[in-house]
Amino acid sequence: MFDTHCHLSVEDFKYDILDVVHRAQDAGVENILCVGLDAVDSLKCAEIAHRFDLLFTAGIHPHEALNYKAKDVETIAALCSDVKCCAIGEIGLDYKPGYTPRQPQIILLNAMLELAVEKQKPVVLHNRMAGKDLLEAVDRFNLVRKGVFHCFSEDLTFAEQVIARGFYISFTGNVTHPKSRTLEIAAQIPLGSLLVETDAPYQTPQPHHGRRNEPAYLVHTLESLAHRCSLDIDELTRLTVKNSMHLFGADNFNK
Ligand SMILES: [Zn+2]
After folding, report:
1. Alpha-carbon distance 185 to 213, whole Å?
2. Ligand 1 center to residue 251 CA distance, Å?
3. Is the pLDDT of residue 162 over 50?
4. Mind listing the domains of the chain with CATH numbers?
């Protein structure tokens, strides 16, 4: 399995990250992508990726749009040269009411997309209530490697627009919840565009709901998807790993 999005650098994993990584390996999660949230966090992700032989991304989340400095963009640019850095992320737009104002978010997003073009890296995109503007933004840049819309929870029309542009769509533990609307959307996504992730420590799948999420729980998301699509779980796992390797160019790293 390939967990294409988690945050092992956050406080929640401070005391038992070694156990968390071992449990993931025991569960068959062979690849883990640690996603950076700002310059300092991306440096932490790089350190973790090297310590445990994982992968990482470097980027500045829209939440930081009012806080980041020019030197933080330089840090992200420098991290792109790291052999284990396989994408720019987590970047994007978040229009939840009361969140960071939109204009600074768009300025930050443009800076990150420019970097992705320059460094020829794919992007890991965060989107909340901002789908139209996010598509407009990626359309303005000639991204060589495209990317993924992570923790997808939009409708099928939006999914089709994403896929038409050559982007992947990634699903989290929220597809494991009973009567999940997102599971119905996921079931209609072409298998060649599908990725899975835990988004740990967030988005905990059903059997562990209410507790901290971790990469070892990725199997539950794959189980729900395989069951809904009447697919063999091993086959779905193989396909999503293949897609992840294709997007993140991870063939040179762990496998
Ligand atoms: Zn995330």
Report:
1. 23
2. 23
3. yes
4. 2-252 (3.20.20.140)
CA 157 to ligand 1 centroid distance, Å: 23
**Can you tell me the distance from the alpha carbon of 59 to that of 72, in angstroms, rounded to the nearest whole number?**
9
CA of 123 to the centre of ligand 1 (A): 12
Q: Which two tokens stand for residue 147?
A: 């990317």
Q: From ligand 1's centre to the CA of 124, what distance in Å?
A: 9
**What is the pTM (predicted TM-score) of this model?**
0.96
For residue 33, pLDDT beyond 80: yes
Residue 245, beta-bridge partner list: none
- Residue 61 Cα to ligand 1 midpoint, Å, equals 9
What is residue 36's DSSP assignment? P
Please report the beta strands in the chain, taking only residues with DSSP state E, as ranges in sequence order: 2-6, 31-35, 55-58, 85-94, 123-128, 147-149, 168-171, 194-196
pLDDT of residue 249: 83
Rounded CA separation 244/174 (Å): 20
